[in-house]
Design goal:
Rossmann fold; 18 helices; seven-stranded parallel beta sheet; 2 domains; 424 residues; alpha/beta; 15% strand; globular; 14 strands
Length: 424
């Protein structure tokens, strides 16, 4: 039965491949990185720097790559004879990984994971011969898992999360996802609810280790960049809208214009999640008659209505520079983004109603008094204005946010302990 599902899945991949490659080339118009290393996506690779035991960590894009940082560092420390193969699907994820781990030299190498066909995955595993395959968060690749089983390579799904919505979607694929889940050697889930949902798909060995994202430490360079940005703001109160998604910026900008009582000098720092939308968001700001500055062309003094965060890999710096932060993807039914980094830096956090991707962390942050949930964009701007005018409330809320983040540290050590028996 597993062979049948894998064959059907592979046939669908081969049929879709021309469209997938066409879309990749189309996206490359705005992001040239999508046209680089194309051979890797098809299972063709250059020579390795040297032969040594390899642990593969798959982190699709920026968020997963940043979340993987404490795990990669712990793996490098625990197995000094091994190198890490860090794989991605997006050029922004690859660039983030390069920036995070450049200091390790060839102990961390990078590649795109090939498209999930048996032929390409087989070439990939034969070339890199990983001792273990570690998938981050929600990445379940049926043919990769099946091929690892054939090669005798253990597969771990770590920092694993699965929302009810994703579970329903997975069940639509029935046997394919059930077979893939059964093929995962071990799962390190973020929460009890995530563990229960993953078990219901048939994963045989599931443990709750917590979220590795709580163990991410703000880089000193990011904090210095945040201090530099703050100096350019001339002590203006700063409201950060972080990782906003399509449709949200228009709601936020319109609510900004309707806001009757703004704190004196209030600055809106707007950071879209996807870099290909920077120009689109800049046009939205200008079309509404608001003045705009860009992070990429940062003036000595930011005296505009809006600062557009059109840079990559600087979210910690933006959090460090702001007074309070909204976490994007939550005003519309998109599931929300990770609020842990903002909490770790002691920033009061605002979220919308749609946080199903990070539901437990968000609910716990709200219960701890470090985050506040709002109904819509107008309520968001009113809540931000009130926080910016009340320094004492802001300080209390920020301290509670930081306390919430600190309380949940330790998932990385628990995850490494879980993986040890398979890697050794």
């Amino acid at each position: 039965m597993r062979f049948f599902y894998a064959l059907l899945y592979s046939i669908l991949w081969w049929l879709a491949l021309p469209l997938v490659l066409g879309r990749l080339w189309w996206r490359g118009r705005k992001e040239p990185g999508y046209r680089a290393h194309l051979g890797e996506r098809l299972g063709f690779y250059g020579p390795l720097p040297e032969k040594r035991p390899t642990i593969m960590v798959h982190a699709v894009s920026v968020g997963e790559t940043r979340a993987a940082e404490p795990l990669v560092e712990a793996l490098l420390a625990r197995w000094p004879d091994c190198r890490i193969l860090l794989t991605h699907m997006t050029p922004t994820g690859r660039a983030t990984g390069k920036a995070l781990f450049a200091r390790h030299g060839d102990r961390v190498i990078q590649s795109y994971l090939p498209y999930d066909t048996g032929f390409m995955v087989g070439r990939f595993l034969h070339h890199f011969a990983p001792r273990m395959v570690i998938l981050m968060e929600t990445e379940v690749w049926p043919n990769l898992i099946s091929a690892c089983d054939a090669y005798g390579i253990p597969v771990a799904l770590v920092n694993a999360r699965l929302s009810e919505r994703s579970l329903r979607r997975g069940r639509r694929f029935g046997g394919l996802m059930m077979e893939a889940a059964r093929g995962i050697t071990v799962v390190a889930a973020q929460t009890d609810a995530d563990a229960a949902r993953i078990k219901s798909l048939g994963a045989p060995d599931v443990a709750v280790t917590g979220s590795i994202k709580f163990d991410v430490v703000p880089p000193e360079a990011a904090l210095q960049t945040g201090a530099m940005l703050r100096a350019r703001f001339q002590d203006r109160p700063v409201f950060l809208c972080a990782s906003t998604r399509e449709g949200e910026e228009a709601l936020i900008l319109d609510a900004w214009r309707r806001l009757e009582r703004k704190p004196a000098g209030m600055l809106l720092l707007l950071v879209p999640r996807h870099p290909q939308r920077f120009e689109e968001v800049a046009r939205m700001v200008e079309e509404r008659g608001l003045t705009l500055a860009r992070r990429s062309q940062l003036p000595a003094r930011v005296d505009t209505d809006v600062l557009l965060g059109d840079s990559m890999g600087e979210m910690f710096a933006y959090y460090a520079a702001c007074d309070c932060a909204f976490i994007g993807g939550s005003l519309l039914p998109l599931g929300g983004q990770n609020l842990i980094e903002a909490c770790a830096l002691g920033k009061p956090v605002l979220v919308g109603q749609h946080t199903f991707n990070f539901l437990q962390a968000t609910e716990e942050a709200v219960a701890a008094g470090g985050a506040l949930r709002v109904d819509n964009a107008d309520a968001l701007l009113r809540a931000a204005a009130e926080l910016l005018e009340d320094g004492e409330r802001r300080a209390v809320m920020g301290a509670r946010a930081q306390g919430f983040a600190g309380k949940h540290r330790g998932a990385t050590a628990r995850t490494v302990e879980l993986l040890q028996r398979f890697i050794d």
